[in-house]
Specification:
Pfam families: bPH_4. This protein is of the alpha+beta class. The chain has a single domain, classed as Roll (PH-domain like), CATH 2.30.29. The chain contains 4 helices and 8 strands, in the order E-H-H-H-E-E-E-E-E-E-H-E. The strands form 2 sheets. Strands 1-2-3-4 form a 4-stranded antiparallel sheet. Strands 7-6-5-8 form a 4-stranded mixed sheet, with no helix packed on it. The longest helix has 19 residues.
Length: 145
């Protein structure tokens, strides 16, 4: 029997908004400073717009959901699946600066699974995600930072 997937919104706060706005303004500013170069060679805008597309894809395409006993995540081109039964620890309120980080904000959840794997996610409501994961695997150790 297939369970209905439960989705969790990603927290979108902090630096990511400024990066997105800055990357949108940069091609616009360059275009306004030298319109002639871009009207003669419009393909020159492509290298400036490609990073904007990637950042926008990450910003609008970051999501988390529980489906069939698995925590799934995606953030732009990156996606992954974690079996909830293999989760050993969740650190709440911590920010991971290195490693797999499909998140847009700080103070999220560091999820440790398997033997050495970990991923950082930042849902809108940390407590809801923790409660749902504990409902599937009661052996998860929750550590508050």
């Amino acid at each position: 029997m297939m369970n209905q997937p439960k989705a969790y919104a990603a927290k979108r706060k902090g630096l990511i908004k400024f990066v997105l706005v800055g990357m949108l303004l940069l091609p616009l500013a360059i275009f306004l400073l030298d319109r002639q170069a871009f009207t003669e060679r419009p393909y020159m805008l492509l290298p400036l717009l490609a990073p904007v597309g990637l950042i926008a894809w990450i910003y609008f395409g970051t999501a988390y959901w529980l489906e069939d006993g698995k925590l799934r995540y995606k953030s732009g081109p990156w996606k992954g699946v974690i079996e909830v039964e293999k989760i050993t620890q969740i650190q709440e309120g911590k920010t991971m600066w290195v490693g797999m980080k499909p998140a847009l904000a700080r103070n999220g959840l560091v999820i440790r699974y398997n033997r050495f794997d970990e991923v950082y996610i930042a849902p809108e409501n940390n407590q809801e995600v923790i409660a749902d994961l504990l409902g599937i695997n009661q052996n998860i150790q929750v550590v508050k930072q």
